[in-house]
C-alpha cells in the first residue's frame, strides 16, 4: 500500500522578477522600494517533503497549475525548488493547490493569531 505524503508550501516574503535575458529560467529578488508591476512573481516554497524529494512534488504542483492555464516555473531559489507564479495569478494558484490537496502555511502574528 502506497502512503500519500501531505505537501505543505508557504509563500516567500519577497517578490521576484525574471532576470534580464533569462525569462522562465532565472529569477532575482525585487528590492523592497520597487513599484509593483504585472511582471512581478511570487515564490512558493515546499516545506515538506524536503531535499531531493521536493523536485518531483514541485513539478506535479506546476502541472496542476498548468491544468487550469496558470503559468508557473519550478526553479532553484535559496537552495530549494520553488514554484514561481505571476503575482496576479497568486490567488488562483493557491486555490488550485488547496483543491489539489496541498496545505498552505499562512503567516500569523501575536496581534492576529488566527
> CATH topology, which one?
VC0802-like
Number of strands: 7
Number of domains: 1
Large-scale geometry: globular
Could you give the distance between the termini? 36 Å
Return the CATH architecture: 2-Layer Sandwich
Beta-strand residue fraction: 25-35%
Number of helices: 2
The whole-number mean of residue pLDDT values reads 85
Model regions low in confidence, pLDDT < 50 over at least 5 residues: none
Strands of the widest sheet, in order across it, are 5-6-4-1-7
Share of helix among residues?
10-25%
Structural class: alpha+beta
Mind telling me the C-alpha Rg?
14 Å
The biggest beta sheet is recorded as: 5 strands, mixed
Order of helices and strands: EEEEHEEHE
CATH superfamily: VC0802-like
Which helices and strands, and how do they pair?
Elements: E1 8-11, E2 16-18, E3 27-29, E4 41-48, H1 54-66, E5 72-77, E6 80-86, H2 90-99, E7 103-105
Parallel strand pairs: 1-7
Antiparallel strand pairs: 1-4, 2-3, 4-6, 5-6
Q: How would you explain this protein's 3D organization?
A:
- The longest helix is centred in the middle third of the chain and has 13 residues, at 54-66.
- The strands form 2 sheets. Strands 5-6-4-1-7 form a 5-stranded mixed beta sheet, with helices on one face. A two-stranded antiparallel ribbon has the order 2-3.
- Helices cover 20% and strands 30% of the residues.
- A hairpin with an 8-residue loop joins strand 2 (16-18) and strand 3.
- The N and C termini lie far apart (36 Å).
- The radius of gyration is 14 Å and the shape is globular.
- With 114 residues, it is α+β, with helices and mostly antiparallel strands.
- It has one domain: 2-Layer Sandwich (VC0802-like).
- The chain has helices at 54-66, 90-99; strands at residues 8-11, 16-18, 27-29, 41-48, 72-77, 80-86, 103-105.
- It is built from 2 helices and 7 strands, in the order E-E-E-E-H-E-E-H-E.
Amino acid at each position: 500500500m502506497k502512503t500519500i505524503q501531505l505537501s505543505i508550501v508557504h509563500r516567500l516574503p519577497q517578490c521576484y522578477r525574471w532576470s534580464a535575458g533569462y525569462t522562465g529560467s532565472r529569477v532575482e529578488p525585487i528590492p523592497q522600494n520597487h513599484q509593483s508591476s504585472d511582471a512581478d512573481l511570487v515564490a512558493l516554497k515546499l516545506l515538506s517533503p524536503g531535499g531531493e524529494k521536493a523536485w518531483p512534488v514541485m513539478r506535479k504542483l506546476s502541472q496542476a497549475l498548468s491544468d487550469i492555464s496558470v503559468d508557473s516555473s519550478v526553479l532553484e531559489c535559496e537552495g530549494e525548488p520553488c514554484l514561481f507564479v505571476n503575482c496576479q495569478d497568486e490567488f488562483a494558484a493557491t486555490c488550485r493547490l488547496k483543491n489539489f490537496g496541498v496545505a498552505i502555511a499562512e503567516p500569523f502574528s501575536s496581534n492576529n493569531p488566527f
